[in-house]
Amino acid sequence: MTFASPPLRARLTSFLVSFGATLLATPIMAAPSVGDSVSMRGVWPAGAACAVSLTYDDGRAIHHQLVAPLLEAHGLHATFYLSIQQVRDPDEWRKVAARGHELGNHSLFHPCRREPAEKFGWLAEDYDLANYSPQRFHDELELANRFIDLLDGGRPRTYGNNCTNLTIGRGDREQPMDPILEQLFVAARGTVTRKPVDPMRPVFTRLGHYSGDGKTFEQLRAEIEQARERGGWIIYMFHGVGQGTHSLFIDDQEHRKLIEWLDRERASIWTAPVVEIARHLKARGVRTGTRRNDAASRPN
Ligand SMILES: [Zn+2]
User: Fold this and answer.
1) Any residues with CB less than 8 A from the CB of 284 and at least 6 apart, and which?
2) If you measure from the C-alpha of residue 42 to the centroid of ligand 1, how many angstroms do you get, rounded to a whole number?
3) Contacts of 178 (CB under 8 A, 6+ apart)
4) Which of 113, 91, 238 lies closest to 175, judged by CA?
5) What is the mean pLDDT of the chain?
6) What's the 86 CA to ligand 1 centre distance in angstroms?
7) CATH number (domain holding residue 215)
8) How many structural domains comprise the chain?
């Protein structure tokens, strides 16, 4: 979660400017369809009992070098949330997208609420979400979308909330980011709730999730088996895979065991990118839940 040196920013600016003439307007995602409640029976495809999304944040090289190929070897796909200033290998990410993974939006500059400030020494005050206006936040996410359009050809996608924050602005100007996310994305992975998403009432602009960093395979399996009993959608946020790949990481072997197990359990567990599962639920006419349902739990 370190930030770009001035030369990198200059390169990013140059890159964006050079492609500016060819950029098309970012497609506006379809608004959530609101229909009648669906029956729990058959909510997941092919008779699956639950759904799992694996998400990997911050666009680390290990993701395209090891994680994506490992998933593909087991016929699985994930969501990779790219923070654009950290993209070093655009051609590698193009290949990842072409092989069926989601490239999600994790902003240009990784802005977060610097609360408490002493824990956010890595984040310049210029990128404190408490200082962002709605227009600035919208424009940053829209530009990140346009960059990713160049990598994946312009697909519908989701947002992985930076630092799992849900609001921008400060004091009496603090406001939820949901209206902006609804305009730009199919869905957003909101805060850490440690609860599976209820497929009958998903809050698409703030899908609750679990952190997978530092967990063992047995811990992850126990959580997913709980979701399977309840028919829910469990979303995991990972950062690094293996020591040295990120300050937050899961052990390489524990991660491998998880992927192998998800492959073996594919008859009852549907593993797919966030965008695919969100679109599946929307196509079924699932009614979106109220924000209050998901807002009680605070990120850890
Ligand atoms: Zn991040």
Assistant:
1) 35, 38, 43
2) 34
3) 166, 205, 206, 291
4) 113
5) 87
6) 10
7) 3.20.20.370
8) 1
* 75 located within any domain: yes
For residues 72-88, average pLDDT: 97
- Span from the CA of 79 to the centroid of ligand 1 (angstroms): 13
Domain coverage including residue 189? 51-295
Q: What is the pLDDT of residues 81-107, one digit of tens each?
A: 999 999 999 999 999 999 999 999 999
Q: How far is the CA of 240 from the centre of ligand 1 (A)?
A: 11
Does residue 38 form part of some domain? no
Least reliable range by pLDDT among 25-29, 123-127, 187-191: 25-29
Structure tokens belonging to residue 189: 């992975």
Distance from the CA of 110 to the center of ligand 1, in angstroms? 6
Pairing label, strands 167-168, 175-176: antiparallel
Distance 130 CA to ligand 1 centre (A): 17
Residue 228 near residue 266 (C-beta atoms within 8 A): no
- pLDDT band of 41, cuts 50, 70, 90: low
Separation CA 157–CA 79 (nearest Å): 9
Does residue 46 lie in a domain region? Answer: no
Structural domain contains residue 4: no
237 CA to centre of ligand 1 in angstroms: 10
Cα of 134 vs centre of ligand 1, distance in Å, is 20
Cα distance between residue 160 and residue 1, in whole Å? 14
Examine the pLDDT at 212 and tell me if it is beyond 50: yes
